[in-house]
Amino acid sequence: MQHLDRQVIERALAWVREGQTLWLCTVLATFGSSPRAPGSMLVVCDDGRHVGSLSGGCVEEDFLERLARGAFAAPVSTLRYGGGKGEGGVESVHLPCGGVLDVLVGRLRPEPDTRDHLEVLLATLTGERALARRVDLNSGARNFVEDAGVGERVVRDTARDAVQIRLTPAARLIIAGSSPVSAACADFARTLGFEVIVCDPREEALAALDVPGIERRADLPSRFIASGACHAATAVVALTHDPRIDDLAMIEAVRTPAFYIGVMGSQRTSAARAERLQRSGGLSRDEVERLHMPIGLALGSKTPAEIALAAMADILRVQRGKARDAL
């Protein structure tokens, strides 16, 4: 899940607590080109305010216009954008990208059951549990089921006319240390939908990090990582060239379920670090092999932005389950 999806549920929960009726929209399937993946969310309250995204903007505009005309009064409905009429018989909007988008729309009243449902959703997106959200497409009834966390994000149960939407923690990037590479990496990750946290005990270094929309923590990265900050959708990168920051971060990160752990350095520096982490850090060979070092794809990167691009590309590769030789 993207950090944006967590913001959707946070805002939805706040609106329900204010007594607002909501429409929670979820991308069920995409065909052809599409800017948002299945599982992406948009929430709209009854006065038209909205958070999240289903596309590049054209879908949201059309949805808001239909909602203002009184559409989507049922507890649940589906519609298709692009490719003719959707399942609800609603005439579709042509998408400039040429793709097709199927959307689930759930009308949620400000009731205790809705609040409880959204609280479970938020707990899942913050990494507290792994679940799938199941919605009956006829009645709108919804519940949660245990989920292994692998496979397609959205699964259609045609026999029971229901959909099951996998919920995983919002993608998180923890950056150990502030540096020019850290700034570029934080900026890339933020635009990719990651929740970005930069840790550095040097307050002056954090103050110089001019990247909007990220969290800064004046703390040792290793201490923050050891506090339980990593879940299975977390990537940890060390980008300072300072062993006092980078090595300690790696020692703590390998003890977590983080899906990607990487540290910047040349081949020679990385070999020396591997030996040092085993000798002084007490890491096993298997633990050292979890580390991506040198970090990133071998793009011949030289500048901070190029190094950050290589690192984020490698993180996405691992997140998508792609082998290097499959690129």
From TrEMBL:
This is Xanthine and CO dehydrogenases maturation factor, XdhC/CoxF family. Pfam families: XdhC_C (PF13478), XdhC_CoxI (PF02625). InterPro entries: MoCofactor_Util/Proc (IPR052698), XdhC_CoxI (IPR003777), XdhC_Rossmann_dom (IPR027051). Residues 15-82 form the XdhC- CoxI domain. Residues 173-315 form the XdhC Rossmann domain. PANTHER family: ALDEHYDE OXIDOREDUCTASE MOLYBDENUM COFACTOR ASSEMBLY PROTEIN, MOLYBDENUM COFACTOR INSERTION CHAPERONE PAOD. It comes from Halomonas beimenensis.
